[in-house]
Amino acid sequence: MTMQAELEGVAGGAPLADDRIDQGGKGLGEESLAPQQTRIMGSWSYLFAWLGGCVSIGTFTIGSGLVGTLNLLQTVVAIAIGCTVIGLALMINGMAGHRYGIPFMVQARSAFGFTGTRIPALVRSVPAIVWYGFQSWIGAGALNLVSATLFGYDNMVLFFVGFQFLQIGLSVLGFHGIKWLENIGSVFIIGSLIYMFFSVIGKYGDEISANLINVEGTWGAPFWSATMLFLGIYSTMMLNVSDYARELKRDVGPFRQVAIYANSILPATLFMGMIGLMVSGATGEVDPIKVFSSAVDNKPLLVITLLFIAFAQVTTNILNNVVPPAYALMDVFKINFRTSAVIVGLLAFAAFPWELVKDESADGLGLFIRTYSAFLGPIFAILVVDYFVLRRQELDLGKLYDEAGPYAGTNWAAVIAMAIGVVAALIFSSVSWYASLLPAGIAYWLLMRHLPAAQRFMDR
After folding, report:
1. Alpha helices for 101-232 (secondary structure H)
2. Of 29, 256, 272, whose CA–CA distance to 138 is shortest?
3. Tally of CB atoms within 10 A around 393
4. For the chain, percent helix, then strand, then coil, each to nearest 5?
5. Which of 70, 87, 254, 289 shows its CA 20 to 30 Å from the CA of 19?
6. pLDDT tens-digit map of 23-82
């Protein structure tokens, strides 16, 4: 992709006018790193896309892990706090993408430099690919169980390979495909979540009362740690939210954006987290397929439940786990979106998800999550300080797309600040995301002002 192509429609580095009328024209899979001119998502489409993309098995697992620590009320409050913080964070870091139409890979150039941007890209892409494979295995397991239940045919490998290629086929459609997949699927997702929630209460009501309602729990450190766990599921998306915000129509203001994020993420997180907590608290079972299946007493509803699990993995993967690494590949190797999406789908096989789902792999997977999460808060803080404090919400698009310009190479101020934030996150690992924000943000601000090598990255 040439610089001229990336800068098509941008005059003199100035942002597109905020009152520009969005017009159609972007075809299926025609995604690029250029400033986005065609906005295809209105408020409702955007809300449904986030709702479908946030039905995560990870949320269920976190809910299961809170058994014995928090009671039902405390879990609901922890989820509500986490989702409110998520909504604010997504709106704040997505403002650059929404205003200028630029993706995360371009947004990060002003802070990290053209070469240095590969660091946050790697931090965002590796977890995405791992989760892509992991969730695909879960979805394939659900389809395999449907086949075994209805037809007596059991072939996990075949279903995994087929399920993965189905997702690859959907992902190459780009944001047009994401829009319609998430919008149509959200109705099925909402209905399924409500059905399973009340099925769980009906089947395990006595156990839930005894183990989760009539227990003291705690409002102390474990409670605040729980808010961060639910927040942490979306901490990767907080980095690359501009990838999605650039598709949102320009007339959707910041307050409506917070409402969209919170009201899409909260229902999905609340239902999944609560179901995980309630069923695991009542039965001790943590395997998501076994848990959902145990709440259903007849075959037709069991099939619907399992299909929901599979579909939820598709909607989550296509939105959250394909776009970020695909854009990273486009930036580094100058290839188109369709090719990048296919490569990402194939790389998911290399995550060896059949090993990750084993009981003995749980500790290793948990360590992996805690390790990459330590990098997310610092990068978020650096991007926010760079855009709001140093740039004062004014970006020069010409410089952001000029590989030989002032943002060439690596901004070591951002790299050093990120390292400082990572150390803080690892020291206070139970609240790592919170703990890393101030150290990383302050360090970046100071280094940008006093580190000689960082001065060429300053526009002012």
Report:
1. 104-107, 109-116, 118-151, 156-171, 174-208, 221-232
2. 272
3. 11
4. 75, 0, 25
5. 87
6. 345 677 678 899 988 888 899 989 988 888 777 776 777 777 776 778 888 888 888 888
